UniProtKB/TrEMBL annotation:
<protein>
    <recommendedName>
        <fullName>Dihydrolipoyl dehydrogenase</fullName>
        <ecNumber>1.8.1.4</ecNumber>
    </recommendedName>
</protein>
<dbReference type="InterPro" id="IPR016156">
    <property type="entry name" value="FAD/NAD-linked_Rdtase_dimer_sf"/>
</dbReference>
<feature type="binding site">
    <location>
        <position position="274"/>
    </location>
    <ligand>
        <name>NAD(+)</name>
    </ligand>
</feature>
<dbReference type="GO" id="GO:0050660">
    <property type="term" value="F:flavin adenine dinucleotide binding"/>
</dbReference>
<dbReference type="Pfam" id="PF02852">
    <property type="entry name" value="Pyr_redox_dim"/>
</dbReference>
<dbReference type="GO" id="GO:0006103">
    <property type="term" value="P:2-oxoglutarate metabolic process"/>
</dbReference>
<feature type="disulfide bond" description="Redox-active">
    <location>
        <begin position="48"/>
        <end position="53"/>
    </location>
</feature>
<dbReference type="InterPro" id="IPR023753">
    <property type="entry name" value="FAD/NAD-binding_dom"/>
</dbReference>
<dbReference type="InterPro" id="IPR036188">
    <property type="entry name" value="FAD/NAD-bd_sf"/>
</dbReference>
<keyword id="KW-0285">Flavoprotein</keyword>
<keyword id="KW-0963">Cytoplasm</keyword>
<keyword id="KW-0560">Oxidoreductase</keyword>
<feature type="binding site">
    <location>
        <position position="315"/>
    </location>
    <ligand>
        <name>FAD</name>
    </ligand>
</feature>
<dbReference type="InterPro" id="IPR004099">
    <property type="entry name" value="Pyr_nucl-diS_OxRdtase_dimer"/>
</dbReference>
<feature type="domain" description="Pyridine nucleotide-disulphide oxidoreductase dimerisation">
    <location>
        <begin position="349"/>
        <end position="458"/>
    </location>
</feature>
<keyword id="KW-1015">Disulfide bond</keyword>
<keyword id="KW-0676">Redox-active center</keyword>
Amino acid sequence: MSEYDVLVIGGGPGGYVAAIRAAQLGFKVACVDAFSNKEGKQSLGGTCLNVGCIPSKALLDSTHKLEAVQHEYADHGIEVSGVKLDLAKLMARKDGIVKQLTGGIQMLFKKNKVTAYHGYGTLDRKEGEQWVVKVGEEELKAKHVILATGSKPRELPFFKFGGNILDNVGALSLDQVPAKLGVIGAGVIGLELGSVWRRMGSEVTALEAGGFLEIADEGIAKEALRHFQKQGMKIILNVKISKVEDLGDRVVVTYTDPSGEQTYECDKLIASVGRIPNTDNLGAEKVGLELTERGFIKIDEHYHTNLKGVYAIGDVVGGLMLAHKAEDEGVACAELIAGQAGHVNYDCVPSVIYTSPEIAWVGPTEKQLKDKGVEYKAGTFKFIANGRALAHDDTRGFVKIIADAKTDRLIAAHMIGPSVSELIAEVVTVMEFGGSAEDLARTVHAHPTLSEVVKEAAMGVDKRMIHS
């Protein structure tokens, strides 16, 4: 029976990062993960690298280029004819990126002397100060076990994944462009995957149970909806679905909206109605691992579960289901096990939607601040007044900076527009250091750059924008 100081169950962003950091801190480490590639071999990286963040961004980039050459290049004096889509090649590129990155984790494990096991890791029993974890027929021992098993797509009572009803895995691997594509859920995943297939020619309709992007700032959501509708994506809000039927050659969705009962037919249906914690095969009931009412693993502020020596991080513990949040928790957890002061500042975790235009934010929305009675001041600056955005021919959107009304300390930023997935990092850094809107406003930004929009918005907090 092999013995380790730290055993990580789950090889996604939280798990593999925790394993590497623990190894850097001098522990003998192993990581157990069950994900397999098309050849049946272990493919580390979890949902994010294999069937989530990375492949979706690869497809978003490819289809963004397709749309640009079809509809935007002519404005630059570049005439292109005979454009055609090679879907198989596009998908092969995506698969190549996934293979490169997942293979890279294997190399990082080898470099840091982390042992990888392929299979499901199950907590079996405790022997003295060590936990026994089963991987198939093999038993491993470890004093510290980190659970990082992530999440999985939520199914609803009236549909199951399979056939023409797709989860994120199926939506990333279609071999034909559906003429009509339905999406249940106009959230992050629904909007990104809907955008991918719309750009390739699908007629996309998204059905959303609530309002549009209610997790985002109200002004951002309003701006985003306008652009998505202008692009041709149909978004129907306040929908209550009663039945989903896969008839083999099509999917029929029965729902009610403010106008009454409706029927919608499509060739393929992507269901993206949220994700739930993946605690399958952990042996939670057998060893008495405590879960919350919603099925997440219950932890304290230092990632301890109710079982001594067992910790949990990432999607499986709830909160923001983001790869970068899981990664930082993995680092913090490993450092806490080593007796260091591992910590994650959850007030400074950014969220991004990689559509066109991109959407990014950090901190509370204006509505949330108003509901809590927080006094704040805000500055907003539009990309249309930015020279680099004009040169790029993409002036959509704006940046909003929010600061405390009394102290001027930065408390939030909300952005929609070109490259805001990158621009948000500047604000997060200033927030992490407890900086103010004045600090951001007085920082010299290169000209011409998109980042000047962030500076101007920060200046707008004090009503002293120059270019507006």
